[in-house]
Structures are given as structure tokens and as C-alpha cells.
User: Fold this.
Amino acid sequence: MLLELGIAKSYFNVNLTRLKERLLAAIPGLAAHTQGKHILLVFNDAFGDTIRNACKHDYGSEALHLARAAKIVRRAIFSMQQSFKGTFEVDCQETSIPPLLLALVRMIVEGPSSIKKDNKEEEEGEEDQGGAAALSISQLLSFSSCKQGRRGKTVRHRRNRECPLPVYTALKIHGESRKRGLVDVMHKLGLCISYDRVMDISTDVANSVTARFEQDGGVCPPKLRKDVFTTAGVDNIDHNPSSTTASGSFYDTALSLAQHPILPPIKELNLEQM
Assistant:
């Protein structure tokens, strides 16, 4: 634990009792003074409190606190279940991670006073801009967490703990570029899902559209609503190649639907002016 904090092994791999005895024997006038659980070697009792205040950095205690905090947060992460179901809800990012993790990350990013700041912003109705980074980091931490880490092995991401951010990032990259290499690079960095998972989602979406077509007997957008003013645009689709080797042509009709939940005001006609 201390090695992970950057403390050299020589600082704690020493028998403290024998070291104290050797120092007392080698330096005349040096005395050992007990300050709680610490033993200070000073020449005068008056310097005990001063030296203790200057050297009260306890790495072992900090490592223990970090281990306890990590255990609490990991327990909250693994207790949640989250999977992508084809759509991103309005509050999908907040509901995909435990509030404990988000609070801890935000305190790391903005300081412990960020909690009071959040409450003040909620009361005043201000836009929370500082929490966006903490929300993204929290999703990546939850997405990359594993119960048993293996050195040198690729982390296997479970589908029941897929947060919206890594899913959206991979779909956005693939939709804009269609390049597998970009998705693979981002996946290796732990920023998005794998390319194979993107293909699985694409297949699931295509299968759901096909099932909807078989159920309705036609192509109809899933978001189409009843009792809403709808306009349609109709045009022909013609494909008649001029090449001499063309084996056929294509002719069909395309129909585009657009719904208008809020209609513009209709001006009344003044018949006297007509």
C-alpha cells in the first residue's frame, strides 16, 4: 500500500526499536520522548511538540483511509445494475452511477466545498457546469471497475454495468467516421465500449426495426404519435443506369412523415378585404 503511494521501501522496512536504540547510543545527549503513539528523538523536551507538528505526516494512516474509501465506493458500484436498452433517457447518466461515487469524484475535482455549492445552485436554479466533468469521470470509473483485477490482462466490461457515456462515445465515433481503428483506440484507453459491442448494438437495433415492420405490416417510425398534426412529403425514387451493362432499373415511391406537436397560429381571413 505504501509503495503505491510513492513511499520508498527503505522508509518502512526498518526495525524502529533497534534504530532508536542505535541512535541513542551513538548521539550523546539525545533522548526519546513519547508523543502519543509516536516516539520523538530530541535534545530538549521543549522541541517535542514543534517537531511533532512538523513531522506529523502519517502515510500509513492516509493509505488506510484511501483503502476504506475505495472499499465503500466499490461496494456501491457493484451493487448497481445498468445496461443499454436502445435509447438514452433524460437522466440516464445520473441514474447509471451511485450518488456516493459522484459525490467523491466531485469533491476531488472541485474540493470538499462542492457539496454546499450544489445545494446552493439547486436552490437558485443555476446551471451546473462543474458537475459535467465529475459525472463523466464517475461513469468511466464505474464502467472500468472490476472485482478482481488482473495485471497485463484486458479488462472485460460487463453489459449489466454499461454507463451511457462509453456507449454514446463509441456510437458517435462509429457513426461519424465508420472507422474501427478509432473505436479500438478509445476502447483500449477505457473511454468507450469495444467495436464488437457496437456491432452487437447495431444488430439489435436492426432486429428491433425488422420486428416492428413485421408487427405493423409497414415501415413506421417508432416515435410516431397519434392525435398529432402530421405532414407528408412524397417523391419518386428512380434508378435507371445508362450503362450498357446494366441488368435492370429501379422505380419506387418514398414517403417522409413529419409531425408538428405545436402548430403555428392560423391568421383569420378578413373577407371584407378580399
Summary: The chain is about 45% helix and 10% strand.
